[in-house]
Amino acid sequence: MMRTEEEKKALIQRLRRVEGQVRGIQKMIEEDRYCVDILVQISAINAGLKRAGFHILEDHTKGCVSSAVEEGDGESAIEELMKVFEQFSKS
Amino acid sequence: MMRTEEEKKALIQRLRRVEGQVRGIQKMIEEDRYCVDILVQISAINAGLKRAGFHILEDHTKGCVSSAVEEGDGESAIEELMKVFEQFSKS
Amino acid sequence: MMRTEEEKKALIQRLRRVEGQVRGIQKMIEEDRYCVDILVQISAINAGLKRAGFHILEDHTKGCVSSAVEEGDGESAIEELMKVFEQFSKS
Amino acid sequence: MMRTEEEKKALIQRLRRVEGQVRGIQKMIEEDRYCVDILVQISAINAGLKRAGFHILEDHTKGCVSSAVEEGDGESAIEELMKVFEQFSKS
């Protein structure tokens, strides 16, 4: 699935924010901040990562999976999609 | 909740690994890697963050929540704990 | 998406088991059974319902979504699929 | 943890609604209803069961876990709580 340079830049920027948030939590632990505040931050990072993941999942379904369906080879591409979705929804 | 320096070091190391994994995904996107491989990595990071979160959750329950219960003020500490549980399990 | 009578029977049987498990929890509450045992049962029911859901999700993707893609109208079918994915993974 | 008769009645009523919803899905499958509508119903049931579960989790934490903490035996009760919570959040 070839993303445009712009799409790639947007996704990478989103992940840089997540990277910064993870560093932020390290600092909170360093400073013995209240556990509940740290946990709220971890939940926010997880939710942010899931949004990025759903974005990629949609790209993949519209790109690679649809092409496989059009070429008559949708079955295995859909089974792979389901496996990733199951793993993703349990993480 | 005061963690020992050793506990803090272990938690921060775990989060540094997550930080490195997030950078790894940025690279995968840069290199147009297969979407499913990127999604599997995102699931792994989410799972890693959740494990760190459960660890902090247990510390908090054994520390701050238990002290509040012992001082006869458990009700509000437990309600706060439940809110974090719910938010955490939806992320 | 037309399921065969056999597929319908298997799905309905699975859901009848879930129905029985839900009745079982009512009984556990009636009998003041230990909360943790009740919670383990609720988790088992949720997991059972999710498996049935993933099964239906795969049928739908192989059926209706693939047909829409083949007819050149995949975009909206996939966006609908993603919404269900997200809702399902948060429940 | 002894619930009052009123609390028990409210929880059992909530679970009877879930039981009815599960029967409703069997009917939807019988009638070949649209998969997405069925999946939305399954998500609603899962969310309803989770709310009931969090309710029981809070009762348990305020009841049995707090009593164990007050009797100086909080450690094992909290570890049990964490296991149930992890299982619950993955279901």
TrEMBL record, chains A, B, C, D:
<dbReference type="GO" id="GO:0046872">
    <property type="term" value="F:metal ion binding"/>
</dbReference>
<dbReference type="Pfam" id="PF02583">
    <property type="entry name" value="Trns_repr_metal"/>
</dbReference>
<protein>
    <recommendedName>
        <fullName>Transcriptional regulator</fullName>
    </recommendedName>
</protein>
<dbReference type="InterPro" id="IPR038390">
    <property type="entry name" value="Metal_Tscrpt_repr_sf"/>
</dbReference>
<dbReference type="GO" id="GO:0003677">
    <property type="term" value="F:DNA binding"/>
</dbReference>
<dbReference type="InterPro" id="IPR003735">
    <property type="entry name" value="Metal_Tscrpt_repr"/>
</dbReference>
<dbReference type="GO" id="GO:0045892">
    <property type="term" value="P:negative regulation of DNA-templated transcription"/>
</dbReference>
